[in-house]
Amino acid sequence: MHSTFVRLQNVFGYFTSVAFAVAAAIAVSVLLSPQSPSASLELKNVRVAKGRPHYTSMKREEYAHITFDLSTDLTTLFNWNTKQIFLYITASYPASHKSTSTDPIPDSEVVIWDAIIPADSAPSHPNTYIHPTIKPAASKDKKKQPKPKRSDGKPYPAGASPGIVRLSDQKPKYQITDVSGKIAERTNATLTLHWNVQPWVGLLTWTNRNTYGRWEGLQGGESERFDFPKLPSPSETVKKEDLRTATGAERNRGSPA
Questions:
Q1: Which of 117, 137, 151, 221 is disulfide-compatible with 155, CB 3.0–4.6 A?
Q2: Residue-wise DSSP of the chain
Q3: Domain membership flag for residue 140
Q4: Structural domain of 3
């Protein structure tokens, strides 16, 4: 006759086997969920200045400040196994040293903005992104000015669902600096949208730009190529407000995402 300890061990082993099988089935089942993400990313403005880009910077150097327009529909990335999506935008540009066939040098890539967008069923977190209030188009009749649509602390606009992002003239969260200390007049730069889907169980999935089965690749999500401008002349003044970064409303509840 088995002892109580052996019986408990057998029950626990059976339970973990069933739990693992169910988790594996859930993780694999997301392949049946169709995905068709789309996004529009446009450069709004780019400025280059010289100074201390961060309060921790020990020296003055050139840094770039980029504003952009972003419109995404990533609702199909949210299914029964999606916990949250880490959304971020990178700026890539050729390295300061020229690449050769014998010594290839990849492009420099810098994150300028990011956000944690959870599913509605996910628990709240201090670093969860809060979508800014969308300002309606101005009306000629001042008495009938529409009220701004508040997101009410949600990571998407009012009346929308997770995966919808509508940003206009959005400031970056991070400035762009280069290891060489110079960023002015760099050419062939590009803004690109990326994401990382964190499931409840299973493997992380990254930005998909190709079609695999029922998962379609991202449509859009990349800006046209642009060049960084030269440094402003001493006679030109740059307002500090124009070079401020945005941390989002989530800063009011903890560290920025």
A1: 117
A2: ---HHHHHHHHHHHHHHHHHHHHHHHHHHGGGS-B--EEEEEEEEEEEEEE-SSTT--S-EEEEEEEEEEEEE-GGG--TTEEEEEEEEEEEE--SSPP-SSS--PPEEEEEEEEEEE-TTSPP-TT---PPPBPPPP-S-GGGPPPPB--TT-SS-TT--TTEEEEEEEPPSS-B--TTS--TT--SBEEEEEEEEEESSS--EE---S-BTTBPPPEE-BPPPB-PPPPPPTTS---GGGG-----GGGGGSS--
A3: no
A4: 1-32
